[in-house]
Amino acid sequence: MFKHKWRIARIFGININIDPSWLIIFFLFTWSLGGQFFPMRYPAWPNSLAWTMGLLTSLLVFASVLVHELSHALVARQQGEKVGDITLFLLGGVAQINDEPKKPLREFGMAVVGPLSSFVLAGLFFLVSVFLHRASQPLSAAALTLAVINTGLGVFNLLPGFPMDGGRVLRSILWQATGDMKKATRIASIAGQGIAFLLMALGFLQVLRGVFSGLWLVFIGWFLQSAAAHGYEQVVVRSVLQGVKAKDLMSTTFATVPASLTIQALVDDFILERKDRVFMVMEGDDLRGIVCLEDVKATPRRDWPRSRVRDIMTPKDRLEAVSPETDGRLILASLAAKDINQVPVMEGGRLEGIICRTDVLRYIKLKTELGL
Ligand SMILES: [Zn+2]
């Protein structure tokens, strides 16, 4: 959610990060356990004990979430997927797995292992609770609470809406049955949005009845809704760009403009007059950078007469050339990751073309509209 995360550990070669928003949920958990739940359930406990157990239980809840995410990441890695970081944030945890799974069975395994590990943890905590029953009531109570929370986590994650684990399980089954990943994703995403709206409605009802924790459900539902819609988009984009190379996306005609040209002149004389969209920025004989229509659009209009092309271009040293054979999906991902609008296509030291973000987006739009 935030740009800055804290790295707290590295387990099996996977970085574990904490997003600042996680502090909110950690505080809420500690407070509702230590300040509300334990004192109500065990009135004989002194305050300090209730808070200590609240803190310990919260820490172990997040350790449990971490185990859940690690199980996803490790199964994904064992299946040959590239695995990024695990980040704990406001709504739990997320393991960054870079590519969509290639086979339904793999996706099934990767998804189902998360809830499974939550259920295993629930069982273990339950055993600990029974085992410690006589020895220590507080520890036994904390373990029992953890068993219940992990069961809840497992059940919630199994709700059959994409991109939750249960939705991925549903998708893998539909995918296996129909052989069509896009269609399977669409159905699972619709289920995901349905569940999201249901959660929001439930939350609203609770709020109307004066239970303000219902807001939490509304929030989770809202998050899930956008994740479901976004997840489907991603799959569409990936499948549209499947097999598309840089040479299919690039523009091969581009005008040359001086770095000192004002944006107003660029718009008037080149974009409107000559209908060019991509420009090489030169100073004398040297290439200084590239400018696309997007860069112009991102500049406020009142700055056009004063700002110069060199102020808005992507400078040469930030441009990373690709070859004409580079995969279109990689190009889109790298434009997004580096937050730049264009990439030059080079072959043997020669500039073959330029790809702008709009070229890629236009290609996707065209193909989607044609139903390809
Ligand atoms: Zn999961």
What does this structure look like?
With 372 residues, the chain is of the alpha+beta class. Helix content is 59%, strand content 15%. The chain contains 13 helices and 10 strands. The chain has helices at residues 22-41, 47-78, 104-131, 137-157, 165-178, 181-208, 214-240, 246-249, 263-274, 293-297, 309-312, 328-338, 357-369, and strands at residues 6-11, 14-18, 83-89, 92-97, 255-258, 278-283, 286-292, 314-315, 342-347, 350-356. The strands form 3 sheets. Strands 1-2-3-4 form a 4-stranded mixed beta sheet. Helix 9 (263-274) links the parallel strand 5 and strand 6. Helix 3 (104-131) packs antiparallel against helix 4 and helix 5 runs antiparallel to helix 6. It is elongated and about 85 Å long. The two termini are 34 Å apart. The mean pLDDT is 85. Residues 68, 72, 114, 157, 165 line the site of zinc ion (ZN).
Furnish the topology, listing elements before pairings.
Blueprint: E1 6-11, E2 14-18, H1 22-41, H2 47-78, E3 83-89, E4 92-97, H3 104-131, H4 137-157, H5 165-178, H6 181-208, H7 214-240, H8 246-249, E5 255-258, H9 263-274, E6 278-283, E7 286-292, H10 293-297, H11 309-312, E8 314-315, H12 328-338, E9 342-347, E10 350-356, H13 357-369
Parallel strand pairs: 2-3, 5-6
Antiparallel strand pairs: 1-2, 3-4, 6-7, 7-8, 9-10
The protein binds zinc ion (ZN).
**What integer value in Å does the Rg equal?**
26 Å
How much strand content do the residues show? 15-25%
Structural class: alpha+beta
DSSP strand count: 10
Enumerate the strands of the largest sheet in spatial order, edge to edge or round the barrel: 1-2-3-4
H-E order: EEHHEEHHHHHHEHEEHHEHEEH
**Cofactors, ions and other ligands in the entry:** zinc ion
Q: Tell me the helix content.
A: 55-70%
Q: What gross morphology would you assign? A: elongated
Mean of the pLDDT scores? 85
Seen as an oligomer or otherwise, the chain set is single chain
Low-confidence stretches: none
End-to-end gap = 34 Å
